[in-house]
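In keeping with the milestone schedule agreed at the kick-off meeting, the structural modelling team has produced records for the first pair of proteins. Each record is given below as a sequence line and a structure-token line. The laboratory manager (R.T.) confirmed that both were archived under the project's standard naming scheme.
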Amino acid sequence: MIAITKNLETDVLIVGGGIAGLNAAIAAREGGAEVIVAEKANTLRSGSGATGNDHFLCYIPEKHGPDPHVVLNEIRNSMVWQGQDVPLTMRFLEESFSVVQRWHSWGINMRLFNDWTFLGHAFPGRPRIFLKFEGQNQKPILTREAKKAGAKILNHHVVLDLIKNDTGIAGALAMDVSGKEPTFTIIRAKCVMLAAGCGNRLYTSANTPGSMFNTGLCPSCTAAAPAQAWRIGATLVNMETPVRVAGSKYFTRCGKATWIGVYRYPDGRPLGPFVTKPTRELGDITGDIWNLAFTELMQNGNGPVYMDCSQTSKEDLTFMRSAMASEGLTSLVNYMDEHGIDPSKSGVEFAQLETQLMGCNGIQIDINGESSIPGLYAAGDCTGNFRADIAGAAVYGWIGGRHAATQVHNRVLMSAERAENDSWVKNRIAYYSSFYDRKEGAGWIEANKGVQQIMSDYAPAGPTKVRSESLLRAGLDYLAKLRTYTEAELSAPDAHTLMRSVEVFDLMDCAAIVMRAARERKETRGLHRRSDYTFTNPLLNDKLQTIRQENGEVISEWRTRLEA
């Protein structure tokens, strides 16, 4: 049995030290709360924002005018709109500039050319809403500020499960993976913020099926937050609606709008109607509006799709190269340098990436970032009814952390003795210890690939693959059998492999949730394509599907999307 070596207490526990988590930590500390950040890796370079970003969605009155609805209207036509509740989006917009200003004061350059400069992800003649910034050092700077504010950071501590009592959230069971041998840490908290990132490794890699970790976003973000929330009865939303982003093919990197060029067919025709010549101000928004094109044109033989920078000026190419460093695309730049690839002379092929859980499928939150479990908050890519990528993580991390700090005086801390003797905690400790104590058995990689194969075959995302009642029912059966086999045979002989094994069980939970929710959405909508319900039901246009479990029963419901 793995030993419990630490029993800690705090006002606010933050699960994940990415963009959302660090902003939440600073906000909660400014609100007077004691804060612990539990990070699986190291906050200096962890999460999907590990090595940088260069676009921050926001509303700045001096640029957009006095009405934030100007930006809201553009968001409705953007790549992040799916599944949002409008009041959350408006709250985000109203608070976004204050976070931008804080970041700039801390040393993250948000003012290119000494101004608030909006570039890329834009339509001709329309307001631009993505602020261009230099984010290559955002994680070290946010880590520094969190420590300066007084937050305690526990690196290499992976949260395994949440602890709930009769009044709501009570803390979490974590595992110290800093050494070869794992140990358990119980963290008792009055409030908990889930900020563990998106859900990768759920589906087979679209571009390199044999390379599980070749993902556009952090491959260690494996839907832990929605899985943990689900296990204690929190409400999830939009879990059936797939998300697929796009980027450079095979290298599998995001950052479409960092490129200054034009998407083109092989014969040189522009892919979309928005730009015909490279423009730094606009980019080519076709990749956002019609990112299905990267897959559809390969299927119908009219592809591939190339990013063409042959008409991009030298000045813009230099600017693009520096922006790639800000976006964390240094490995791509280095590869092109090493192999003599000049994007002004050679088109770069783009492709859709694999399906992810990201921002518009996950934990349902309210206007303050709180979930259906009192005292449990969520921010960033693990939320289900709001998405604005890095900006959303930063701003709603701030909103949720600040609100949690105001609530700690209303909540009672669980005692150390009660936490260690809690039946749920003892059962979960025994569960994870069983894999570590098993001296011989199967590895986690095979189990993870099994999840990916089942999801890719039986609950695929469009545009060229479909779901159906019979496929989803079979997929759920295979998932259940895979879990049974894995629990009976898995061996994790050290801390690292046990951590990876935990990730696989989180993925199994989320895979089953996705399939159950997909069965309930009896229509075709976006990338959720049903061969047995080929039409889009207009009566569901303003509806969102929620799912939770209560006393072992799965409860799926529909609610109206919040518009005001």
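The second protein of the pair:
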Amino acid sequence: IINYVYMSRICGNFAAINIIMYMKKLLISCLLLIGMNAGAQTLPTYLDETKPVEQRIDDVLSRMTLDEKIAVIHAQSKFSAAGVPRLGIPDLWTDDGPHGIRPNTLWDKWRDAGQTNDSCVAFPALTCLAATWNPALAGDYGVSLGEEARYRSKDVVLGPGMNIYRSPIGGRNFEYLGEDPFLASRMVVPYIQGIQSTGTAACAKHFALNNEEAFRKRYNVVVSDRALHEIYLPAFKAAVEEGKVWAVMCAYNLYNNQPCCANDVLVNKILKGDWKFDGVAMTDWGVHTTTDDAVKYGMDMEFGTHTDGLAKGKDNAYEYYYLARPYKEGILSGKYSMKDLDEKVRRVLRLHFRTTMNRHRAYGFMCSEAHYDVARKIGEEGIVLLQNKRSLLPLNANAKRILVVGENAIKPMTVGGGSSSLKVQREVSPLDGLKARLGDKVQIDYARGYVGDTIVSYSGYRFNTDLRDNRSAEELKREAIEKAKGADYVIFVGGLNKCDGQDAEGYDRKGLELPYGQDELIEALAAVNKNMVYVNVSGNAVAMPWHAKVPAIVQAWFLGSEAGNALAAVLAGDANPSGKLPFTMPAKLEDVGAHALNTYPGTWRKDKKIIDREYKEGLYVGYRWVDHAKTTPLFAFGYGLSYTQFKIANLRADKTTMTRDGKITFTVDVTNTGRRAGAEVVQLYIHDKESSLERPYKELKGFDKVYLQPGETRQVNITIDVKALSFYNDKTQSWTAEDGEFVALVGNGTNNLKNSLKFRLQ
């Protein structure tokens, strides 16, 4: 079997490798059963599930050779690391998330392996999940993703992503959870718990400060300690301390002049020291560091050192990773200690006992209708109604003809964007979703309007939709305008896509503007049809210079497999929109702190190898900058409309003074004053009136989503403790809450906080 696996790898026969891997797992299972049936006296401690895990790990460590220890801490293929076959410990298989289980790739290459049984359900991008403001849905998301991973025998899902939305041009923002550390924290914990409930490890990424993509392997972040701890680390801290995440992927960029994957402050001091993280700190794929730094500064598992695994002149290039042969040779020469190696191996073994060695984890299942239902529910709750003049939406049931315009109405959006690209079992386009929902009663016409991207394959995977169109831009525009003149509605489905330079890994956008001449086309269509709906498909904010001329605007995100069905349900009124923006939509790029202060892209050093990116705006990210600089956003953080109306009133608290070891509960009455059932998100922000250090005017510290029937009133309670009043004191390097007066601000968005109440901490 070993010889056959080796020859299959050399020949690139992935199908044969896959068969052998299953045979290997079967053999390991048989060996385990034989061992367990041999009698209690002969059962090795590490196989005895009645023993504590740490005792079992000690037993495995005592049995492993140096070569076996080195083997488990680095990759053996693009997405796997070796187990210990001699001891019955299987290989560890990772897979890209965070929006679905990525198709299998070739052993040594990024390209699609060409299998036919590795399709998946694509769930909405994490920006959409954050826009639901519904932690319960985050848990459902995680369980569904974990079940799909289990069915495909994946042990680690490389997600969730939780870096902060610092700039709207960040190419990977669509994979993250918005601009606010509290919102991101509350959404990421149930997501992680959901995945890991299936026996699959979540891997929180990218730790830390990976807020833009351009020069991501070459920029060194210069940020204050306060901003680091108050803005950029809380979601990771919650993932570790509350979510109990089993793995953390470190970012490409540098912090404090060290790569994040081997960083004394981030990994050794904060992650493993302050937060007591007991899992694996793994690298992103293709890191820059050295063996010395990898050994000393916290790297446990290495998944990439710029090789395809078949480097010229080397029989197995994975052996030349920093934590492979160079590490072994350093140990044999006495340069490195076995103590450090054993600590890394111990963490990897702990991950194995939580995943591959857990005989009780579920088998999982894939592409189930339950998973599609979760994907659709997240999409429906995450879609944000930004503007609805004349109550144009939901669509009038008496409409006879609707014109759909825009490339994004037909373009697959589950493919592309980098490592989160998926191979889906099905993806319902916005055009097909509208036809399925309205087609029997309404004539649905379509006009392309513009041509932006016509690729038909990505990373070796070829998809079915042919987007090629030989007509000129003027011909496409003219067709759309002529068809719009006689339509009851024009629904323009535009925005961004997952091509390089838009919402995509490895690239940042050049600005806020819509690509492909969409702004001109939208203006022209609005001039000939007053009933226009603009649907923005993106994971980022975009400029909307025409927003006053378009009565209805919908933020639709990348919605995954059920995109068309979720969007059609909201537009038709089957689902009442309840999404709230997880980031601020600025009117112009200069209204963002990072750009107002000219901090992007940064300053190149003299040797042109490293760029220093200084976060001059400090704490003032997103709505915090809006308050600080007194700008007016296009659409505010936490904002989102509904087809019904809500009243939030009668704010009160169970006490007027909170002690340091106590809590305070705020209560409001929420009434659905409209004619439709719907959901409202009650948001609590805290303003500190007396601080010794500068603080943002307000900060989100609590929220709750409440579902109400027409005329129904319900009390919403939000409880906080002293943590909600604390700031990070960079002088003492500790969290501090100072006695004094605070104000609770409650409403349904940072632009609508009409309820306020003073209280004291003492």
